[in-house]
Write a structure and sequence with these properties.
Elements lengths: L23 H10 L6 E8 L2 E7 L9 E2 L3 H15 L10 H4 L1 H4 L12 H5 L12 H6 L3 H6 L13 H4 L2 H9 L3 H10 L7 E3 L13 E3 L1 H12 L3 E2 L2 E2 L3 H8 L13 E5 L4 E5 L2 E8 L3 E6 L4 E7 L4 H22 L1
Antiparallel strand pairs: 1-2, 1-12, 3-5, 4-5, 6-7, 8-9, 9-10, 10-11, 11-12
Helix pairs in contact: 1-13, 2-9, 2-10, 2-12
Length: about 325
Amino acid sequence: MDDEHEAPADDWPTSPAGAQGLDEAAVAAALQAGSTVPGLRALVAARHGHIVAERYYGGAGADGLVAINSATKSICSMLVGPALAGGRLPGLDHTLADLAPATFAQAPASPAARVTLRALLTGRSGQAFDSAQLASVAAARSLVRLALAQPDTPAEGWTYNDAMVALLSPVLEHAEGVDIAEQAARRIFAPLGITRWTWRRDRSGQPISSAGIALRPRDLLKLAALMAAGGRWQGAQVLPADWVAQSLASAGPATWRARPVDDIGYGFLWFSGRLHGQRVAWAWGYGGQFALLAPALGLVVATAATAPLAAALQQQTDEVMGLVGRLVRAAA
């Protein structure tokens, strides 16, 4: 089931790359190189509020909606900030059971009950998740019930846990009184002029917080620009600036890799690292769905790609991030 919305006006100004201080030849070469990555569908970049690079591949177009996969998690994290600032969430160090009491009344002995919101957001829940379970996640009638039923599988350090992130949905719904899709529409999409999007729901009717959203690449780019500007968009403070800063700051190392990025860390459902010497942060979806910001350069980049088979995942991810890196170099 999808939430469907109409097409927006085009509100991104464009500019020649050179006029915004990028190496035009390097930008053109990166866009051309995108045609050699079979799964790539879009590569879009903006600097100082102007689109400076944009190309679509494999029959895709500017107005097409593309699933952003796990980059959805980063959008859900963005919603936590206003709820905390408004006092509707009492704090990050409360347990999930405290923050979604009706949900956990169904399974009070669930290991997730003792996990704090901070631990969920930073990927340090203390519970491992087997990626082989992703098929069961996709098929589950209720992802929340699936998460509650997860066995106690202790893990140290950073773990990527799709099931655990499903519990962010009832936490935010309890705080705000409406589901996460409605929250995103009101608090993020409407202020940014994003009026065409879909959000998949599981068979229980719950919006999927781990991987449910589809957006135009230009609108995914807006989310990166919002974070790069400390939560501001066109003069309005959309998200609390301190929440944005905390979200993008690494809470510790992550084990995933996307070459040529190094020093990869994880904040509040946002990755961080260093790309060709520049500090960057990004939302990351399966197969190379990126919304990346390089704040010191005033540069944001969004990509769209198809979901590859597992055997091809790392190669495609590295190839797409490699193209992003070429744009970062062109701006440096």
